[in-house]
Amino acid sequence: MTHRPDRRGFDSLEQELVERESQRLYRRRRLLQSPQQPALHCDGRELLGFCSNDYLGLANHPRVVESLQRAASRYGVGGGASHLVIGHSEPHHALEEALAAFTGRERVLLFSSGYMANTGVITALLDKRDAVFEDRLNHASLIDGGLLSGARFKRYLHNDVDSLRQRLNASSVQRKLVVTDGVFSMDGDLAPLPELAQLCQQQGAWLMVDDAHGFGVLGETGGGCAEYFGLGSDQLPVLVGTLGKGFGTAGAFVAGSATLIETLIQQARSYIYTTSMPPAVAAATLESLQLLKEEGWRRTHLAQLIARFRAGALALGLRLMDSTTPIQPILVGDAGQALALSQRLETAGVLVSAIRPPTVPRGTARLRVTLSASHSEQDVDRLLEALAKVTKEQGVGGE
Ligand SMILES: *Cc1c(COP(=O)(O)O)cnc(C)c1O
Description:
acyltransferase; pyridoxal phosphate; 8-amino-7-oxononanoate synthase activity; 8-amino-7-oxononanoate synthase
């Protein structure tokens, strides 16, 4: 970075950047030169990656790639317009119907990203007369949607049903929306959905779950936390999934009743005022949905890798979190230390990202390991060896 005064009067911004850097909170992008897969070509180097959300290894699957190519030949590249004008094409419609069948919901609506789905849903359902109740570790897109809606905004303690009950009891507004991640993105733990669903039913509140990290991974057929806990539309009326993680493509969807979906079509601004996703992406997602349902071995293999990693990391004395999912954070605490560990791992040829505030609370910086069905057992062993080496060098772990 250059620290000379900015001629356009951006000095105060420059100052903030310098401060951020001195607190070791500065973020930098890497340049990926290969597809998303364990063996990465990145910034001119070969690295073994443990930081993608491509949990099932579908992002670069030949059948998914081929479906995209075939659909691009037929439908072109761009969506061309918003869904409500002339951008809603056959592959979008077919994907919505397939996802409705998959989730066992009446209808599904596609969005261009999970961020847009979350902000679109919350702002469409609530206004300033209403209240939204959010787990304090919810994903930023859920927090932003809640704030943008203008509804009264209440945060409850992480996964704490009593804390939520107190806040619901103290609220007299008519519409109450309870919002939670299904699998928490930085911790990997699950929300207690059956208990939350029961409480919401007692209180006449709606439950909305963002299952970005559960679809494809949890449940017998990859139906996510709704399938895992056996929750239907009555208990879990607003179900959000994203397509850029387990599905390996891009975009997001909301599943629920016909009334919910029609309301979103009429009211969700991030649905109405944007170009539809490229139709070929929808076609590719139909193929990845097929693979995700059919190839149960991907989930079985993933579960084996998770068990192998946890056993190995615990043997090294590392501090793991309460997670049974492919998100396996190693708690470090100090942001600088987490960053240094990540850099040492990279020198050893292994890529694991350091997650620091404000993404996670102060003092809880961590290494966020994510596993994929495309990893092998040898890959996990290489990660464990590298962790053993760098934590010893830096004097971390070994409680
Ligand atoms: C990644 C993520 C999103 C955003 O989804 P995109 O499709 O990447 O915009 C939303 N919620 C959670 C919990 C996520 O992890």
